[in-house]
């Protein structure tokens, strides 16, 4: 049941990305082009997502446990370290250059265009490299 729930949530998320136009990298890149063809719609999509998330967390966290797990898996760390800053910077640079973030690229794979395929493949390689570096650092410490 948990897998089915995850699938349905992913489908709703992907549909929202597609309907809002955020699977189109040109629309995202136009948001960053404040001196040219600026398109503020990304700000409205993000604002709507923040509002839904804020309300959802307030409602769901009143429960003693999630529906398909024994406890909530919330972040335990609140510090800002080099890995967080570096990862955030790489995410932003990649998003600004490609016009895709993972949330927009995965639904865009369904368009069968090469851009989201290349982005997703390089993202997976980046994840694998980051994991290998983390593992190597753990072994050396």
TrEMBL record:
Q: What domain of life does the UniProt record list for this protein's source? A: Bacteria
Question: Which keywords appear in this protein's UniProt record, sorted alphabetically?
Answer: Membrane, Transmembrane, Transmembrane helix
Q: Transmembrane segments in this chain: where? A: 41-61, 82-105, 117-133
Name the Pfam families for this protein. DUF6691
Q: Which InterPro entries match?
A: DUF6691
Q: Know the name of this protein? A: Permease
């Amino acid at each position: 049941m948990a897998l089915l729930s995850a699938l349905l949530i992913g489908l709703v998320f992907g549909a929202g990305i597609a309907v809002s136009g955020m699977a189109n990298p040109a629309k995202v890149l136009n948001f960053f082009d404040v001196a040219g063809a600026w398109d503020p719609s990304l700000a409205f999509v993000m604002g709507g997502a923040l509002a839904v998330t804020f309300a959802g967390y307030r409602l769901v966290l009143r429960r003693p446990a999630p529906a398909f797990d024994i406890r909530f898996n919330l972040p335990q760390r609140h510090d800002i370290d080099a890995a967080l800053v570096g990862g955030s910077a790489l995410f932003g640079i990649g998003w600004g250059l490609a016009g895709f973030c993972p949330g927009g690229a995965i639904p865009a794979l369904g368009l069968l265009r090469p851009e989201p395929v290349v982005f997703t493949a390089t993202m997976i390689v980046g994840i694998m490299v980051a994991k290998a570096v983390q593992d190597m650092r753990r072994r050396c410490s």
